[in-house]
Amino acid sequence: MTARLTEDQATAIMLAAHAEPLEPYGSVGSPWRCRCLVCHQEISPRLANVKSGQGACVYCAGQRVNGTHAAEVMSAQGMEPAAPFPGSKKPWLCRCKICGRQSTPFYTTYEQGRGGCVWCAGNRVDPQEAAELMRSKGLTTLDPFVASHARWRCRCQSCGKEVTPCYSSVRAGQGGCVWCAGQAVDPDKAVADMRAAFLDPLEPFTATNLPWSCRCIRCHRVVSPRLDNVRQGRGGCVWCAGQRVDPEAVVAEMRLRNLEPLLPYPGARRRWQCRCTLCDHVVYPTWMTIQQGQGGCVWCAKQKVDPVDAAALMRRHDLEPLEPYTNSSNKWLCRCTKCHAEVRIRYNTVSAQHSGCRNCADMGFQWEAPGVVYLLQHSAYYVMKIGKTTTVAKTDRLALRLEDGWELVCPPWFVPTGSDAHDIEQQVLSYWRVGLGAPVALSKGDVPGGGYTETVSMLWADPEDTVALVQAGVGGLANRLTPAADDKDT
């Protein structure tokens, strides 16, 4: 059995825990009235608890709040206590120093720094002030105020209709009367608007943004438009507007356009597998493009070419393809069956001009004949012109250029073939248009006989630089000849 502590021993333990006894020692389990040497509050700890290390002062441990200290905390945050401190977890009647209204906050909220007047923060509303605000917004209240977020029955002073706005919404500036704001719709007016759009409602009106089952007066189909869309002029019947179609009617229309559908109707914007009844090709038009008049078969419209048909066309023009067909705009390597020369020519060129090998053509630029490159300038326009010709050209257009006021910048250059002359001309044009960003200098009427697209202003391009570029191109050819003094232009 443990021996009882003496008065001196018990006092020494309490003093060590910063508690000064105010009465004689009783027992280890009895409350012992003391004064805290730290906060000077009167406390009643048990010696057994102090010996076990729990501490002596409940105020210093934060387990109890002093009323005076609590009042100081509340006052520092704008609240003046109007009743004795009831405890940290009980409502405490206080008065706001700013608005003067009373409220019952909890001390713990202010102790954590989250305090504030519920009136000043707008968390609580004075019914009289709420009614005054509603009146200022043109609303007469019909029921007592309940809460800021509750529906409040009122009458609009403008239209006289009964409405139920929330006080918080009106205070936030959202307006009070849904009728005056156009947010609510008279059912009779809604029905009238739908009938004006040739729609007969089949059910009562609910809301402007919800589908409304109606029957179209024109096509007699049942549709579900929204009143908002009808009022905005977007139409009501998707069938009459062409936004929805009868698949059977679409199939019949496709057959009238020589297209036999191979799959069910997929929709207006989706590709539809069909067979052209004229050329027997499988095509993939859309119903939308058919409606726009763009046609259905790309083969019959010459937008796509069958490689077999393309090769047959080339052979009809004495050209034997040497590589597979790619497309109509790419150059196609072929061999002329007349002169046996290899040429690269586009399918669409042969199809449009009805001609084949450029070397065997009776007219036009002779690509395999000896070629000539020349550079002209016009002092009145202050422009240059690059050109090409051959020694067998039938039209002496260079002489015509000179008669029109053009002058040679330097003597022309002989090159092995007209094709070489064309390549050098393209190098110069690429340098002018791409390298310098220079535009065409003259218009079609300024250059009789054509050739205006090969001109450039000398404000953009320097003649000496252009001559040097041509010299470099001519110098790169294996069989370069000396400059010629006279020639003919194409």
Task: Please describe the structure with a list of short key phrases separated by commas or semicolons.
23 strands, 5-stranded antiparallel β-sheet, single chain, elongated, 3-stranded antiparallel β-sheet, 490 residues, disordered C terminus, alpha+beta, 7 domains, 15 helices
Number of discrete domains: 7
Q: Helix proportion of residues, in percent? A: 25-40%
What summary fits the major beta sheet? 5 strands, antiparallel
- Tell how many strands the DSSP assignment holds: 23
Strand content: 15-25%
Query: Which shape, going by the Cα principal axes?
Result: elongated
In angstroms, what is the radius of gyration? 50 Å
Write down the overall mean pLDDT. Answer: 85
Structural class: alpha+beta
Poorly predicted sequence stretches spanning 5 or more consecutive residues: 479-490
The number of helical segments is 15
Distance between the termini: 133 Å
In short:
The chain is 27% helix and 16% strand.
Structure in words:
With 490 residues, the protein is an alpha+beta fold. The chain has seven domains: 7-51, no CATH class; 67-111, no CATH class; 127-171, no CATH class; 187-231, no CATH class; 247-291, no CATH class; 307-353, no CATH class; 371-475, no CATH class. The protein has 15 helices and 23 strands. The protein has helices at 7-16, 47-51, 67-76, 107-111, 127-136, 167-171, 187-196, 227-231, 247-256, 287-291, 307-316, 347-353, 397-403, 418-435, 463-475, and strands at residues 19-21, 34-36, 42-43, 79-81, 94-96, 102-103, 139-141, 154-156, 162-163, 199-201, 214-216, 222-223, 259-261, 274-276, 282-283, 319-321, 331-336, 342-346, 371-378, 383-390, 407-408, 413-415, 455-457. Strands 19, 20, 21, 22 and 23 form a five-stranded antiparallel beta sheet that branches. Strand 11 and strand 12 form a beta hairpin. Helix 14 (418-435) crosses helix 15. The longest helix is centred in the last third of the chain and has 18 residues, at 418-435. Mean pLDDT is 85; it is low at 479-490.
